[in-house]
Design brief:
CATH topology of the domain at 6-164: TIM Barrel
Radius of gyration: 19 Å
Distance between the termini: 38 Å
Bound molecules: NADP nicotinamide-adenine-dinucleotide phosphate
Mean pLDDT: 98
Structural class: alpha/beta
Number of helices: 14
Strand order of the largest sheet: 1-2-3-6-7-8-9-10
Number of strands: 10
Order of helices and strands: EHHEHHEEEHEHEHEHHEHHHEHH
Low-confidence stretches: none
């Protein structure tokens, strides 16, 4: 359902693109085989979906060539949502339905391909949420559902009420919790599509001078020279090497960065190289 690399739109406001510029960017991504685009209702303070929707409106036929992932469940205090009194999570039927309807309106589309519950809501009633998801699916408004940033037990509880399709978590050579807490194993076990947000540590991998970043960068650069690829390609190849085959969700607006992520698809990292990066990240060898 998703392309092997997914383009994230969280940073769209930083890219300074006009509507026709965004159409051009989407076309370039599609030409690279990136057909899935990751949103959340809250990105850009509730503005990014509408910018993307304007691009879809500008280029008839574009919508049919791509998949839209979006998220709901975080409430920001914003002039665009005057009813929100405090930053909080909300997985109630009323909020999820209202959020999906707003997303459909902003994106100027009749369906969302994949809807994710953005964060675990401690007040989530899994039976109510499953019923809400079923209704949205029956209405054709959302094709598939998943979660983001959930613990494996939280995902398992909801999955017993409704068949989830995806789990989007932070995963990169700088953030390996999904390896250790059972998240990726659970995706494999249940046949869920894993998605890796901040695959380059939100840019920390290349821009930060902290010890872990320097260690990992050093190994990535050495391996990049060996493989004749960019260090960012090695970072994506590292996370895609896991048998759950996580889809990197890129964060850059630069075409070259998208190309570097796509190049990882044809790079099968030898297991020892994978462990070299693991060792650089943890700062120690395996037990
Ligand atoms: N589910 C969630 O809770 C959640 C949370 C966060 C993000 N996300 C999703 O994940 C997507 C990606 O997150 P992210 O933006 O943090 O991903 P990322 O790809 O790890 O980081 C992107 C940042 O890295 C910089 N960068 C990329 N390549 C670089 C290079 N070679 N050298 C120096 N800097 C480089 C980019 O700057 P340039 O633009 O200059 O390349 C950008 O600022 C988001 O758009 C969103 O869709 C989801």
């Amino acid at each position: 359902m998703l392309s092997p690399v997914v383009a994230g739109l969280m940073r769209l406001p930083e890219w300074g693109l006009s509507t026709s510029g965004l159409v051009g960017w989407i076309e370039e991504a599609l030409a690279l085989g990136i057909t899935s685009f990751d949103h959340a209702d809250i990105y850009g303070g509730y503005s990014v979906e509408a910018a993307f929707g304007a691009a879809l409106d500008h280029a008839p036929g574009l919508r049919r060539r791509l998949q839209i992932v979006t998220k709901c469940g975080i409430k920001l205090v914003s002039p665009r949502r005057p009813g929100h009194g405090i930053k909080s999570y909300d997985s109630s039927r009323g909020h999820v339905l209202a959020s999906v309807n707003e997303s459909l309106r902003a994106l100027r589309t009749d369906h969302i391909d994949l809807l994710l519950l953005h964060r675990p809501d401690w007040l989530m009633d899994p039976a109510e949420l499953a019923d809400t998801f079923s209704g949205l699916q029956a209405a054709g408004k959302v094709l598939a559902f998943g979660v983001s940033n959930h613990r494996p037990d939280q995902l398992a509880m909801l999955h017993r009420h409704f068949p989830l399709a995806a789990h989007q978590v932070e995963f990169s050579p700088l953030q390996m919790q999904a390896l250790n807490d059972g998240t990726l194993a659970q995706c494999l076990d249940l046949g869920l599509q894993a998605m890796a947000w901040s695959p380059l540590g939100g840019g920390r991998l290349f821009r930060s001078d902290d010890e872990q970043s320097r260690r990992v960068r050093g190994v990535l650069e050495a391996l990049a020279r060996q493989h004749g690829q960019a260090p960012a390609t090695l970072a994506c190849a590292w996370l895609m090497r896991h048998p759950a085959r996580p889809r990197p969700v890129t964060g850059s607006g630069r075409l070259q960065a998208l190309q570097q992520a796509v190049a990882a698809m044809s790079l099968q990292l030898p297991a020892e190289d994978w462990y070299r990066i693991w060792q650089a990240s943890t700062g120690h060898e395996v037990a």
